[in-house]
């Protein structure tokens, strides 16, 4: 069974949190597996900053035959975020009003705008109930925001390596990356390659927040004592920048890093603690012990604020990227989360007899 790539077209005006309006949009999305007759086996995945709707490519340890989410048992959905560059409407799309490519004129998005677009797709697919909503990093921010906007739609939330509002530390990292893009003289242009060299530097900066000292020591330290230049760690930074620039664009990187900065579930809801009272989904909060960008205290805080929630800690040398690497640990944590719910349900059923 293979994943199916599809396109959702929304052909009405779409008003953003800023007040700007998109004259419609499209979302590229992937489905994998078969919807059960009871329509109770839906898993919805929200991807990270540079991810795509093809979750089998970047979270393959969780999804596939014999994996935690086997397509024989689950119906899995993931949409490329609005503003993305993997088939959804974004800065490199043509504005139907002007018949010109958006480029710099594409309006700024927040996570709430992105989630509102996802919600329109959910309604189009007639998925009244989602068994599990799962997302990591930026995707975790969006998943939490969505679960608050539509508390009756999501039965369970798996929130991985993310937070309730983006930190000053995280915003500073993102702005440093955007500074690198701004320094690229081509950034002012309206072209597909505008800011590409700056994007390479931005990605190199980002790697220092995604990874950890331990990981670099293990994988990038020189084996001998005679090197005085051309270090492995230096070439690794260049490689990561070049690699992203071949599959992404500076506009989307800028746009989605700004969306990440906008994340604050307490905005307009009386603060974070009040906002979390809206959450109805049974929730698992997952952290990575070496995460520098979304440190574990952010997930512990959420766990403490949400009565009845669960918490799991992944141990990794890969820092924030551990949520993508340590899939065996993550799958075990989600399995325990599901099993604990079953045990509790059986206990209460026995007490009721």
TrEMBL record:
Record field: catalytic activity: L-homoserine + acetyl-CoA = O-acetyl-L-homoserine + CoA
Domain AB hydrolase-1, first and last residues per copy: 42-326
Entry's Gene Ontology molecular function annotations: homoserine O-acetyltransferase activity
Residues at which substrate binds: 203, 321
Keywords: Acyltransferase, Amino-acid biosynthesis, Cytoplasm, Methionine biosynthesis, Transferase
Gene Ontology process terms (BP): homoserine metabolic process; methionine biosynthetic process
Subcellular location field: Cytoplasm
SUPFAM superfamilies in the cross-refs: alpha/beta-Hydrolases
A Pfam family this chain is assigned to: Abhydrolase_1
NCBIfam families found in the cross-reference section: homoserO_Ac_trn, PRK00175.1
Function: Transfers an acetyl group from acetyl-CoA to L-homoserine, forming acetyl-L-homoserine.
Recorded family membership: Belongs to the AB hydrolase superfamily. MetX family.
Protein name stated in the entry: Homoserine O-acetyltransferase
Species, as recorded: Pontibacter burrus
Gene: metX
